[in-house]
UniProtKB/TrEMBL annotation:
Organism of derivation: Pichia membranifaciens NRRL Y-2026
Keyword Metal-binding annotated: no
Record-linked PANTHER family: HYPOXANTHINE PHOSPHORIBOSYLTRANSFERASE, XANTHINE PHOSPHORIBOSYLTRANSFERASE 1
Keywords, alphabetical: Glycosyltransferase, Transferase
One GO term of the biological process aspect: XMP salvage
GO molecular function, one term: xanthine phosphoribosyltransferase activity
Protein's name in the database: Phosphoribosyltransferase domain-containing protein
Cellular component, GO, one term: cytoplasm
InterPro entries noted in UniProt: PRTase-like, PRTase_dom
Amino acid sequence: MSSDDKLYISYNCVHKLCQKAATEILSTIGKPDVIVAIGGGGFIPSRIIRTFLRQTGEKNIPIQAIGLSLYEDLGMGADAIGKEVIRTQWLDFGALAQHFDSLIGKNILIVDEVDDTRTTLHYALTELYQDIQENAEKLGKDMGNTKFSIFVVNNKLKPKRAELNKDLMNGGIYLSGEDVEDRWIAYPWESSDIDTHTELAIKQGNN
């Protein structure tokens, strides 16, 4: 794939999009209690947006990581999404309960770099909700105040293979830093030549 076919995004661009999103998050759902980063693309945006969500004198928002991989579904199952999502890393609810009083009733922000087919985001939201719900039932707690919001650096303007259940989000929001056309996106943390990458991003107006 030639450089002309890719959309280059600089670190500056990601930083500014996270800053803009943080302002909207704070004015709508308020400061999240925890950020769940979908690896590996969600790690760096999660760390950046946390900087802008944190108010002076407040503690840092905890960042938890989950790992998901997409595999082509060659069978008859896996529903209409068309790809199977596999957990490669997930939350340790036991450890969270010891150090954070679990995620029940928390304001949770899920972060990823791109919303492409929406398959991964659909899986993350659905599975996190179900796991927290099961944990709440075991403990005899009400998860009615548990809120899920989603931030992606870029949303590709294309038909999605899955939709997000707004009922599970419980008043949370979906937010993209910027909607973009359906092209291959080159992020700076994937680059082996950051100087050339940045030059191309500036040339495309993505700095």
